[in-house]
Write a structure and sequence with these properties.
Layout (H helix, E strand, L loop, with lengths): L7 H5 L6 E6 L24 H13 L9 E6 L7 H17 L8 E7 L7 H10 L3 E5 L5 H7 L10 H5 L2 H7 L4 E6 L7 H10 L4 E6 L9 H18 L7 E2 L25 E4 L4 E3 L18 E2 L3 E2 L1 H8 L3 H4 L2 H4 L11 H7 L13 H24 L3 H15 L1
Parallel strand pairs: 1-2, 1-8, 2-3, 3-4, 5-6, 6-7
Antiparallel strand pairs: 8-9, 9-10, 10-11
Helix pairs in contact: 2-3, 8-9, 9-14
Length: 406
């Protein structure tokens, strides 16, 4: 299953304007997470060096199209660090080619990883990190408390939880990435763990927690009220204990739940079409969610390959997407539309026909619950700050942080 939020470090780096190139280096993983949207994991489909090299050469040979000022080279699986030898070879080749070509990306690139963290401590992974630390973003997924994490993030084969094996690597991870964030994925089975899990993550030194509700149509009656109650209890804990000073949680965003202008706010939430993903067979996709192992009911949407390049006729519909071309009127007119996200791949997978122009709306009631809790959070926080005469200083520190991000 997929997530509402774009990762915070990617938003911060170059304002989210970098081109993203994704290598699906393997479809294997040690885990069988119960909320995972990848439905065809296996140990056979591993990317070869030949496919990886052809992808890099194609991208760098076509600078007229891949013309952003910066680039994120993203590595996913499965679990990407299972292929650390290949990844190391890929990254070395990228750096050499950027230098040889005097490419504008030479000093404006990032290698990005989202990992389960199980082999983070291994010698090969650590050597890679040390070599590339200045151009590296790594996110270890830990869902929160041991109970929550082990509910969903289990080993394949024996169904045992993975929390203990992941959390032992967190001190090393935070030593190398002190401002690292993590991602908590919420589905109907784990709503009641949200408050305790966010507080737990704060307590072990992870100060930025991104919580994401899945897009798929899995939500049951009453889930929205359960989510709202959990977030209000979390808001009380954060505000009463002044945890907002050094910590942040993505479910509390001041600009969430506002009306959106049909003209000025009509951009597409998702980057599909402006991203490029490549799999072990050398097929190109608008993003990894259009690959076959990410889809439940539709055929993969292939937009080219490493030998023939991109098929721009197949890309054209994705490049024309915006909020109004794919949303029902109810979403366009919604009074709390801001921050309500969508995944282009899930839109395609859930649509009645093979189209990308039909927005999936299963997330609607969960978004509205989040908005209600978000309003509670900011009203309570600003009342507290005003009573204590600290609101002006708090807003000044927020503006400073936003300036750094932008």
């Amino acid at each position: 299953m997929n997530d509402i939020e774009i990762k915070a470090d990617e938003i911060a780096w170059q304002g989210g304007r970098a081109r993203e190139i994704t290598f699906i280096v393997t479809k294997d993983c040690q885990l069988a997470c119960k909320y995972c949207y990848l439905v065809g994991k296996n140990s056979q489909e591993r990317m070869s060096w030949e496919v990886a090299k052809k992808t890099i050469d194609y991208v760098l040979d076509n600078e007229w199209y891949f013309n952003e000022e910066s680039v994120i080279w993203d590595f996913i699986g499965g679990e990407p660090f299972l292929e650390i030898d290949l990844i190391d070879q890929i990254c070395d080749y990228i750096k050499i080619e950027l230098f040889k070509r005097n490419h504008k990306w030479f000093n404006s690139y990032r290698f990005n990883f989202s990992t389960n963290g199980l082999n983070y401590h291994s010698d090969k992974v650590q050597n890679f990190i040390k070599k590339n630390i200045d151009h590296l973003s790594v996110t270890i997924t830990i869902d929160g408390t041991k109970e929550l994490h082990d509910t969903n993030r289990v080993y394949k084969g024996n169904n045992n939880g993975s929390y203990n094996d992941v959390v032992k690597n967190i001190p090393l991870y935070l030593e190398q990435f002190p401002v690292a964030a993590t991602k908590v994925t919420i589905t109907t089975s784990n709503i009641e763990f949200i408050k305790d899990s966010v507080l737990h993550l704060f307590s072990i030194g992870i100060h930025e927690v991104n919580i994401n509700c899945v897009f798929e149509d899995v939500w049951k009656d009453g889930d929205d009220l359960r989510l709202e109650n959990q977030l209000m209890e979390l808001a009380d804990e954060i505000i009463d204990n002044e945890l907002y000073i050094n910590n942040s949680c993505s479910f509390f965003w001041e600009y969430l739940g506002k009306p959106m202008d049909k003209v000025t706010d009509n951009s597409n939430w998702c980057g599909a079409g402006n991203m490029l993903a490549v799999d072990a067979a050398g097929n190109f996709y608008p993003c990894t969610r259009f690959a076959q192992f990410s889809l439940r009911s539709k055929k993969a949407l292939i937009v080219g390959n490493v030998n023939e390049g991109l098929d721009f006729n197949k890309l054209r519909p994705l490049l024309s997407l915006d909020r109004c071309t794919q949303s029902p009127q109810e979403c366009i007119d919604c009074d709390v539309a801001s921050g309500c996200a969508w995944c282009q791949g899930e839109n395609y997978d859930a649509a009645d026909t093979p189209t990308v122009f039909q927005r999936a709306t299963a997330i609607c009631k969960m978004h509205k619950a989040r908005v209600r809790a978000n309003n509670y959070y900011w009203n309570k926080l600003y009342r507290k700050l005003e009573l204590e005469g600290e609101r002006e200083e708090f807003e000044k520190s927020k503006r400073k942080s936003n300036d750094i991000i932008c």
